[in-house]
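Dear colleague,

Following up on yesterday's call, I've attached the two folding results inline so they're easy to grep. Please treat them as preliminary; we haven't cross-checked anything against experimental data yet. The first protein's sequence and structure tokens come first.
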Amino acid sequence: MPESPTVSNSSCLIALDAAGSLGILERPYSTIAVPDAVVQECGGALPAWVRVHSVENQALAQSLRLNLGAGEAEAIALSIERQRDSSSTIRKRGGLLASSICPSQERSPSC
């Protein structure tokens, strides 16, 4: 299961919902993140395990809309934002681990 929520556009959500199979995504992902535009494209009715997030980088989303639909553009922008947040968390954890293994005052070239 992914550590951070998977981001989705509306295409797979609409198709699975039409087939009566939207619930199959909950088991492998537990939580799916979608931007506001995807909620609109899906008609607003999504299960509780689908969490809505607003895109912070609207400039990126607008730029992507030049070639994509609103849902796809916002999903890509949200995915990039969440990847950045996840990378930041991983770097922080790595830094804490490195500090506990080799405190700064004792660091050698191998640390």
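Below is the second protein, in the same order (sequence, then structure):
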Amino acid sequence: MSHLVSRQSTRDSAARVSADIAGLNSFDAVDVSVEQDVRRFLTLALQDVAKIAPDVIGDGACLDAELAMESVALIEVQVAIEDAYDIELDAIHVLELNEFAAIVKYISELVHSRTHSR
């Protein structure tokens, strides 16, 4: 039997993560701070939603290894990021990137593009 997760349930989880780490996405300074902010946000989301231990989350950690999680948790992390930064992630691209550092860079670039296009 497949388990379906409602979009509202996922958004509720995302809102909880966003509330837990409120203030982290104040990226008014330089681009380096955007990447640091995204790194902190993603790390905390992985800890909170996917229950991944903090010592496992590092630049070389991969979604197909150390960062493996249930698909529902992955969607919840994605929605949390999208809601927090007002961006849309390409989930397939994230899976293809696989490595934490590459995913942080990809998200940071989207955030940077969004903030500089307004």
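For the second protein, one point worth flagging: Residues 1-5, 21-30 have pLDDT under 50 and may be disordered.

Best wishes,
A.L.
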